[in-house]
Amino acid sequence: MLIQICFVALGVFAGIYVGAIPGLSVTMATSLLIAMTYSWSTDTALAVMIGVYVGGVYGGSRAAVLLNIPGAPSAVATTFDGYPLAKKGLAGQAIAVSTLTSVVGGLVGTLFLCFASPLVSSVALSFSPRDYFLLTLMGLMLVGSLGGKSIWKGLFSAAAGLMLGIVGMDPISGLGRLTFGNVNLRGGISYIAVMIGLFGVGEALFQLLHRNQPIVRQKVDSIRPPKNKLLKLFPLSLGSGVIGTLVGALPGAGGEIAALLAYDTAKRVVRHPEVPFGEGAYEGVVAPESANNAAVGGALIPMLTLGIPGDSVTAILIGALAIHGIRAGPMLMTESPDLFNNLVFLLLLANIFLLVLGMMGIKLFAKMAEIPRNILLPMIIVVSVIGSYSINNLTIDIVWTLVFGVVGYFMKYYDVPVGPMVLGLILGPTIEVNFRRAILSSGGLFSMLGEVVTNPLSLVLLVIMVLMIVSQVLSSRSKNKEPVSPGQ
Amino acid sequence: MKQGERVFNWILLALSIVFCLLSLSITPVTELTLTSDGAYPLFISCLSLLFALCILLDSRKRRRAGASQSDGPEEQPVFCRDVVVMILFVIIYAAAILVVHYILATLLFTILSISYLEQWKWRRGLLIGFTSTFWIVLIFKYFFSVILP
């Protein structure tokens, strides 16, 4: 237990550091951790990963406040008011407020995870292959948020991931597909190797384009915000936490949308802030920071109960659990109830450490974010190689990692998001198997579609899926119409 | 439009066509049913073909609308010197792992890459290379108990 506690603290510490450096993503750090923690016990591996996840989501706010660069996508909304606060010489206070509200949001998310997961899981136990097919399709909706600048490129990336998932033996007949007679391909392409390549090596190569940018020295002053202000901001923090959890629980949403939605809601709800939004309002830091950390707990709900990732990090966590022989999904609650309880405990613990480390190390982290990229980038490649090899001890995985690293560089350069490719690779086999099983058990496509409409559970899933598509279309339209916010 | 984006988009289309042809080779068209081995790959490859076409049309639309080059560091050419050299080092690294031992390959890679990125300051490259390789081996092999390549 003590070891787990130490590793959560270590994970939070590392996560804040990773999140604070623009360009280093939590997804990348988690994907590298899978391999490093492969030989550890499941609980210890989860401890460090949850720590990095929680710390990393919060860490993004550091760069957002100090440099006006979101350290993570979920910290975009924090720049709107965080940076104007820093320009006023209130960077320390802004970071302290973001730390406290992140913890409040994180605790709200944990509470929801604790109570909602058993309910969702009990419903999911009665799912048929048809429902699983619909659910995994719902998981693909994540492409909407991971899609980047062009939705077509996001969709292509997801389709390419689904195609890569086909390589290997057919899941039903056992025949080789797209293997070209090569023995190495019969087992399929390791998605961990692909993930590490795309997120690790690809990101390192992409960061070379930015390496000549001078390191911005960060200045942090007083960190103590006024108590009466904190008390006044507490209800907003709670409300934003609830928004963040609910949005985070939707596959396809995630912390970025949660933070933007909470920021937008705060702008509507707080009618008379002391300082207008966009000019350094504390409310503009509280809402997104509480929401994006609450989204962590939210994203874990569909992951643990349905086996559907809520965001890209939970997609990687599904892989991490699979490596440890645990299948995320409705059976997890009955097969490994201890694991669920442990995960809730770890999340709770991570938020406590976030409070301690976040408040303590503000000046230290500001210094650490200045590490030269010329040293950091080759190290990421070296660690990626170790990571990809250690899973199966196969040299071919190193080759896949490096090949997909180069592919990832080109994808990033041309704004093709890499997240959907990983999502496709993970969900592809489940989609195919359940689709074929559903067709076989229904006796044909039309009878399966008929069952979808007549079965209440399937109908509910279908309606949710349609609503998700509509909301994504609406949100992308409103994003396009919205003028550029101050601080962007 | 970024430099080379048009070529990149055509490559995506070409890849999709290759996907389609490969999918067609799994199950002959005459024997294709919804549950056969080749149905799902064919469906996915057709989707990727459709999306690749949409990307091409979208970029053409943007080009006609006179979209300028994007701002920021992405304006650097895709094959900028740093990236090309590092990709070359990565290839050498992969080959070296297969030929010589991992530790030796890592040492070579870190020294080469750091020296290059630090404008051929060999002394600095050697120092950081040796130190980092030592720590990597120590941490991963002995602390994390990871089997090194």
Question: Mean pLDDT score of chain A, rounded?
Answer: 81
Spatial strand order of the main sheet of chain A: 1-2
Oligomer: heterodimer
Query: How many domains in all of chain B?
Result: 2
In short, what is this structure?
The complex is a heterodimer of chains A (488) and B (149). Chain A has 488 residues and is mostly helical.
What does this structure look like?
The complex is a heterodimer of chains A (488) and B (149). Helix content of chain A is 74%, strand content 1%. Chain A is built from 22 helices and 2 strands. In chain A, strands 1-2 form a two-stranded antiparallel ribbon. In chain A, a hairpin with a 6-residue loop joins strand 1 and strand 2 (176-177). Chain A is mostly helical. In chain A, helix 5 runs antiparallel to helix 16 (337-360). Chain A has helices at residues 2-20, 26-36, 42-67, 76-87, 91-124, 129-140, 143-146, 151-166, 183-186, 191-207, 227-248, 255-269, 283-306, 312-323, 331-335, 337-360, 362-368, 373-392, 395-413, 419-442, 445-454, 456-481, and strands spanning 168-169, 176-177. Chain B has 2 domains: 5-75; 81-143, no CATH class. In chain B, 70% of the residues lie in helices and 0% in strands. Chain B is built from 5 helices and no strands. Chain B has helices at residues 5-26, 39-64, 81-99, 102-117, 122-143. Chain B starts with a helix and ends in a 6-residue tail after the last helix. The interface between A and B is large, with 60 and 56 residues.
